[in-house]
Amino acid sequence: MLLQLSVMVSRKYFRLIGPQSSKKDFAAFSFLLVNTLCWYFITLNVLDNLLTNLGGSAYQTVVIKASYNLAIILSGFCGAFISTKIKRRDLLLIWIIFGIVASLLPFIIVANSMESVTLFSAWFGFSFGFGMPSCLSYFTDGTVFESRARSAGLIFFLASLFAAVFVLSDILSSGLLSISFYLAIWRSSSLCILVLPNLRKIEANRTERTSFRTILGNRPFLFYLIPWSMFALVDALEKAYLQSYIQIAFGESFFSSNQFVETVIGSLSALAGGFVADIVGRKRVVVYGFVSLGIAYAIVGLAPFAQLPWHFYSVVDGFAWGTFFVMFIFVIWGDLSPPKGTREKYFVLSSVPYFLAKVIGAIFLPLLRGFPKESTYATFSLAAFFLFLAVIPLMYAPETLPEKSIQDRELRQYVEKAKKTKDKYI
């Protein structure tokens, strides 16, 4: 009897696929998200290379980066609006075609001027943001609370792994036309999820129409949105400052190694953070991330001219970014959104602080680079203060993982402990 109970709880706890989806559905939206995130990471590298080759001024850099991120925000709202008018499968198909066309733009327009690079950045941004809310809603509908964070962590890890393969290979150094060709092939591969035989359509049972005003009046949503916005803004401003600071103080090689450490730690922490969030809850993982990152900024603020605090900061920042990306991009908004409502509006509203902070960071980058060296202590201490301040709304935020899931985990632990005790004495 005890063994049967243990097996029953274990099966329920480790269930990955939601009641509305099949194994093919789960594989489909997982591959679609991996494909999209990897495409997004690569396009960021392509835009950076275009900016470098253009050799533009600080003003031109701001315009190009602003056009990219603002296009993501605008297209996200467009996609959320259209998602209530057409089937999700059709919207995803249009979205993928947009990405293929964006990848092939260098075959049509020569990227040798400010206007052409701005057009590239705007179309890349629009092609990414248009269907992302529906894709994340697709993911939410196809997973269950008990394993949603774990699935998201695996998807982010795989996307980072594929992007690393692209970056470490010679593809990104083979010329813009070659990169565009490979990008188009990679984006086209996601079309296979729409033509698989017997692929079930996950369509939300949208009997409720949720408005943006209702969502913004939702206190749990705001209690998570406020700290997420504060983190995105602090991170964007601090990254704009510390990039030039580290390069000047410690050299380009030290900065590159720190970036590599952050990327690796971020990918691994996405896996670990997702697993832990499905066990102890989302809220606790997010609070730990804010507190640890605040401590890292405080330590760097105390000794900004030594290398050891920066190594510690790279590890903690990578952990925080990997965890926050999974929690605030994939999981929390899906947990808060009603199953019968329009989930897309939750995802598009939550994405605004992240991409808007990137625009603000690009605008303030020239000013922050001109800060005197003596202001370093105050800069990072102020960042630590705001990150600790961001924890306050989380104290009032509810746990989005259902209490029943946590109780199932505790029951499973109790059953396993009882079984070991029984085996010990029999």
Outline the structure in words.
It is a single chain. With about 425 residues, the chain is mostly helical. It folds into 2 domains: about 25-195, Up-down Bundle (Growth Hormone, Chain: A); about 210-410, Growth Hormone, Chain: A, CATH 1.20.1250.20. Helices cover about 80% and strands about 0% of the residues. The chain has 17 helices and no strands. The chain has helices at about 1-15, 25-55, 60-80, 90-105, 115-130, 130-140, 150-170, 175-190, 210-215, 220-250, 250-280, 280-300, 305-335, 345-370, 375-390, 390-395, 405-425. The longest helix is centred in the N-terminal third of the chain and has 32 residues, at about 25-55. It is globular and about 75 Å long. The relative contact order is 0.14.
